[in-house]
Design brief:
The complex is a heterotrimer of chains A (376), B (427) and C (239). With 376 residues, chain A is of the alpha+beta class. Chain A has 12 helices and 12 strands. Chain A is rod-shaped, with a radius of gyration of 33 Å. The longest helix of chain B is centred in the C-terminal third of the chain and has 42 residues. Chain B has 14 helices and 14 strands. Chain B has a 6-stranded mixed barrel. A two-stranded antiparallel ribbon of chain B has the order 2-12. The two termini of chain B are 30 Å apart. In chain B, helix 1 crosses helix 12 and helix 2 packs parallel to helix 12. In chain B, strand 3 and strand 4 form a beta hairpin. By secondary structure, chain C is an alpha/beta fold. Chain C has one domain: Rossmann fold (3-Layer(aba) Sandwich), CATH 3.40.50.300. Chain C is built from 7 helices and 10 strands. In chain C, strand 7, helix 6 and strand 8 form a beta-alpha-beta unit. Classes of the chains: A alpha+beta (376), B alpha+beta (427), C alpha/beta (239). Chains A and B meet through helix 2, strand 4, helix 5, helix 8 and helix 10 of A and helix 2, helix 10 and helix 12 of B.
């Protein structure tokens, strides 16, 4: 039998045959690793997830026609939107504005894509329902509806100036936003384009992008001049506030993570120390049998590492599960597994368990065996 | 004798007791810090979200007509206004404490000497408003619109000749801070001359406007004591089903529901209360801000709650773990006590009393350490103290007692089934 | 040839003198018993001989090496190479089997050898119990594992501290017989005891009192029970 196999046996049996103690220590390490991997995963994921939440504020980027032009071609808008980082665009809603007459009253009409509006402006409160695609239904702003006494299901008669011809549209819903949208009537974009004789043209496009102010500014600088008749503008109120609030949130999670981690690690270390301190007599005996301090330290280190490894594995799994539960509960979206974080949490668990073993062992090996073994 | 043994254990096994107290202190400080932060985070984040601006818009009831930045003329009704004297009443509603700030404004069309139309808005910049309660409220757009990037200075409300110009307009007119801007306001023959105190970049429609003190616009339009609208920024509770139903029509609620709704800081309830105090006003929640705020607040609170639960579970397990370890360590001593004829109850009582003594000491130390941690978080993240909620104390006490008891249970059971002979003979 | 030579050993614990100028020698193959009442310095002396403690004064020469010149690391090496320890409390590692406990001593000494360890257990009559944990062994069996462990590295000196203190009479006899066999085979043994019956088995007996050597006698013979020793200064208390 080689030296190493007895070493392995000693480490293994110290763990297996002292089950209740080792379960305690293992649990401690696993708790530490759970907290570590769970919180760090969240720390990395929260800004990303929260960034998405902030998009409920609506568009943070506007695409406007160059110079004094009132309209721009739709293709150019699509092109510009296409150059934004893919996968980060939540939605892009084109709008074409012009004045129409309803009951001889001048009202602003906006042609848009309702499916896109739902994505870009999730805060629209609709009484009634969204018009079905291609149905030709209209959404009326609350102020306009009150003025004209319109209700969902009724028909609204629209006269387009120039083309002295009446159009009848069903009112699908009334929109409440508390903002200027309440003063508009919204119809489907192709319909308005056709009425106005402005095929393929839009006045403005609202884009909701999951990106910070810096990222968007960089994109604007990069595409400056190549816009094809388009000027992008940031909705500063949104981008800046988002940066501010997200920064604070990240700092909050960061600090909380730090403090929780610190306390948990101390907790783990004290438990490990309590478990090892209990074995002072065994250390004394081994010394009396002629073991060098180095071999004793190595044995305990081995135990600590095995414990750390097991606990780390268990905890990393639990931590990821916890982060997953939180993400699903809070953001209703799963998180991706971060191998680097898992590895770091595992490594930290092994290191902490090893270190927490070493401190009391070093203290115990400093003691003369006679003092430990005497009496009792 | 029980007390002497207890005393002996506490004093002479100082190291072990210290270890136990330390772990409990750590757990308690974690619990205290997390609970305090969690209970306060909603309020703090809510304040941060105020950077998104007003979430309630107060306009004259009769002026709820189509009139927007696209230049559609007023389609009906006379020009009605709110009374400036009523504006302060917003701070007297049931949820007055939740009103962060507000700013009245009165817009006027003006023309530059070379014939360009501009919109001039009279408002409060930084106005100290005395309240009926004797306190003073800071109001005005400086507090309301913190995202404005200002080049130069904010306008002093008392300086009727100062103006702030939006960045786009300033670019068009070639204005710099310190320049003079001449515009003809209302029916005045002579253009008013304003000193440009600062330029601002708001990223919104305001960038094409000029902001001057409210008094000046009122005088020019002969509308003394009148304002066009008031923007209000309020701390609100995320909306739920009840709030949504109330928003449709508060009269449809039952009395009990109405009470609940009225006494909760829903944005619709606050808007309703503003309508009650400000004569002839219509207060509308700005959905874009109010809804998003609610969503984000809810997420953050839930997130903090879950993190708190994790750290609580962690510290509970940590404490019970250490207790188990330290009680197991004492099996020999307990075996001896039993050999001397101690009953199981007596042994359990002794161990529990020691644990509780260590727990109390650790708990008190941990509570204050936890308050410290909470303040560190509060100051470094939000730049403000985290309120120490009184309800945390009993909560922590109950938790510690439960965890300590639960933590000692498995170890205690082990000790009680222990046969003295086995322990003492080291088998 | 002297295996062990103590030259004027003193041991101070603060103001208390645990040992005061103790001089003695142990020859190769000798069985020496050290006797004395509690507090007479027996255990202190054993710890010094066993390289687990350093004296305040005097020299210990073990197998030709002056221990006082050694560092604690050197003492550890000596303990490993030259000394086999048997304790009153047995002190077995609870999570290792009897066999593994013996092998641990080999492990620290040089190389674990299972067959040799089994043979050592067979010598103390525990071949069948080799795979049991200490908690599954009786006190006597545990002590015999301890002896097997002490023997395994062929130590120059076997030190036993009250080896039968925790054993019943049957087990005590068993253990003492093993020591007798070892003695006959030429092992050098030092036992510390307060039990006259144990000391009586030894070749020579030294009595300690208040940290000094109070008496010495060769080949003590057990005396009839109930008769107190009358001359403590001259006669071994084994009587």
């Amino acid at each position: 039998m080689t030296k190493y196999s007895l070493y392995g046996k000693m480490v293994l049996y110290a763990l297996l045959r002292r089950r209740s103690r080792m379960v305690v220590a293992l649990l401690a390490v696993a708790i530490g690793a759970t907290v570590l991997s769970g919180l760090v995963t969240l720390y990395y994921d929260v800004p990303r997830q929260m960034g998405r939440e902030f998009r409920s504020y609506g568009a943070n980027l506007l695409l406007l026609p160059d110079g004094d032009n009132q309209v721009m071609p739709e293709q150019a808008v699509q092109l510009a939107a296409g150059s934004l980082p893919q996968g980060k665009v939540i939605g892009m809603a084109p709008y074409l504005y012009d004045r129409v007459l309803i009951n001889s009253q001048p009202i602003m009409a906006a042609g848009t894509d309702f499916a896109a509006v739902k994505k870009v402006s999730p805060y629209w409160q609709i009484t009634g329902q969204w018009p079905a695609p291609g149905s030709g239904g209209a959404v009326v702003g609350a102020e306009v509806a009150e003025l004209l006494r319109l209700k969902p299901g009724q028909t609204v008669t629209i006269t387009v100036p120039g083309a002295e011809q009446e159009k009848k549209l069903p009112v699908a819903g009334i929109v409440h936003t508390g903002g200027s949208e309440e003063d508009f009537i919204f119809v489907e974009l192709p319909l308005l384009q056709q009425w106005l004789g402005k095929p393929g043209l839009v006045s403005v496009a609202q884009v909701s992008v999951q990106a910070g102010e810096g990222e968007l500014t960089a994109w604007m600088q990069q595409t400056a001049g190549t816009g094809g008749g388009i000027t992008p503008r940031l909705v500063k109120q949104l981008t800046q506030s988002e940066g501010l609030v997200l920064g604070k949130l990240q700092a909050l999670v960061y600090l909380v993570t730090l403090i929780v981690l610190l306390l948990t690690l101390i907790c783990v270390a004290t438990t490990m120390m309590a478990v090892v301190t209990e074995r002072r007599k065994e250390i004394g005996l081994k010394k009396a049998l002629g073991a060098e301090n180095r071999s004793i330290v190595l044995e305990f280190l081995g135990e600590g590492m095995v414990l750390g490894g097991l606990g780390g594995l268990l905890g990393t799994g639990c931590g990821f599960y916890f982060a997953q539960v939180v993400s699903l509960q809070v953001f209703a979206r799963p998180i991706s597994f971060q191998p680097l974080i898992a590895l770091a949490a595992f490594g930290a668990a092994v290191a902490v368990a090893g270190l927490a073993c070493l401190i009391p062992v070093r203290m115990a090996t400093g003691v003369e065996p006679a003092t430990v073994l005497r009496g009792e | 004798m029980f007390w002497r043994m207890l005393q002996g254990a506490l004093v002479r096994q100082r190291r072990r007791m210290f270890m136990m107290a330390l772990t409990i202190a750590l757990g308690v400080s974690l619990t205290t810090a997390m609970l305090n932060v969690m209970l306060d985070v909603g309020d703090k984040v809510n304040r941060e979200l105020k950077t998104y601006g007003a979430n309630i818009m107060v306009t004259p009831r009769a002026a709820s007509v189509v009139k927007d930045l696209y230049g559609v003329e007023a389609a009906g009704g006379g020009n009605q206004y709110l009374q400036e004297a009523d504006v302060g009443k917003i701070k007297t509603i049931f949820w007055a404490h939740n009103i962060v700030t507000f700013a009245p404004s009165l817009a006027a069309e003006a023309v530059t000497p070379d014939g360009q139309p501009v919109t001039v808005v009279g408002t409060w910049f930084e106005h100290y408003l005395p309240l009926p309660t004797g306190e003073t409220a800071v109001t005005g757009i400086k507090a309301l619109k913190p995202w404005w990037q200002v080049e130069g200075n904010w306008v002093d409300d008392a300086d009727g000749q100062a103006a702030m110009v939006g960045s786009l307009l300033a670019g068009k007119l070639g204005l710099r801070p310190g320049d003079t801007l001449a515009v003809r306001l209302g029916d005045g023959r002579q253009p008013g001359r304003f000193r440009v105190a600062g330029l601002f970049d708001s990223g919104g429609a305001e960038d094409m406007q000029v902001f001057i003190p409210l008094k000046t616009v009122q005088q020019a339009l002969h509308l003394e004591g009148k304002v066009g609208k008031v923007e209000v920024s309020a701390l609100t509770t995320p909306e739920n089903e009840l709030a949504r139903r109330a928003a449709q029509n508060p009269q449809n609620l039952s009395v009990a529901e109405w009470e609940t709704w009225y006494c909760t800081a829903y944005v619709s309830a606050i808007a309703y209360q503003i309508e009650e105090v400000v004569g002839g006003a219509r207060a509308k929640p700005v959905r874009q801000v109010a809804e998003s705020e609610g969503a984000i607040l809810q997420k953050i609170q839930l997130l903090m709650l879950l993190i708190t639960v994790l750290s609580l579970a962690g510290s509970a397990l940590g404490i019970s773990n250490l207790l188990t370890a330290s009680i197991m360590e004492r099996s020999k001593e307990i075996g001896l006590l039993k050999a001397l004829g101690a009953t199981d109850g007596a042994v359990a009582l002794l161990v529990l009393a020691e644990t509780l003594a260590a727990g109390t000491a650790g708990g008190i130390a941990g509570y204050f350490a936890g308050l410290g941690f909470a303040q560190i978080i509060g100051w470094s993240v939000f730049g403000a103290a985290v309120a120490a909620k009184g309800m945390v104390i009993p909560l922590v006490m109950v938790l510690v007692a439960l965890v300590t008891l639960a933590g000692s249970l498995p170890a205690m059971r082990m000790l009680l089934v222990l046969r003295p002979a086995e322990v003492l003979h080291g088998r | 040839m002297n295996i062990l030579e103590l030259q004027g050993i003193t041991m101070d614990y603060g103001t208390v003198k645990a040992l005061d100028d103790v001089r003695m020698t142990v020859k190769q193959g000798e069985w020496l018993a050290i006797m004395g009442p509690s507090g007479s310095g027996k255990t202190t002396l054993l710890n010094i001989i066993g390289c687990m403690d350093k004296p305040s004064g005097g020299a210990v020469i073990l197998d030709g090496v002056d221990l006082s010149t050694l560092s604690s690391k050197g003492l550890t090496a000596i303990r490993r190479e030259k000394i086999g320890l048997v304790f009153q409390q047995f002190h077995l590692i609870p999570y290792l089997t009897a066999l593994e406990n013996v092998m641990v001593a080999q492990y620290y000494h040089s190389m674990p050898d299972e067959e040799e360890a089994l043979a050592a257990l067979a010598r103390v009559g525990l071949k069948d119990r080799a795979r049991h944990l200490p908690s599954q062994l009786s006190g006597g069996e545990q002590q015999r594992v301890c002896i097997a462990r002490a023997l395994i590295n062929y130590p120059a000196l076997i030190l036993a501290d009250e080896p039968t203190g925790n054993l019943d009479e049957a087990n005590q006899n068993l253990v003492l017989e093993i020591f007798q066999t070892l003695h006959r085979e030429g092992h050098t043994i030092v036992t510390v005891t307060h039990d006259p019956e144990v000391a009586a088995r030894a070749e020579r007996c030294i009595v300690l009192g208040h940290g000094r050597i109070a008496g010495e006698q060769r080949m003590c013979k057990p005396a009839p029970e109930g008769r107190p020793a009358d001359n403590k200064e001259e006669q071994c208390q084994c009587g």
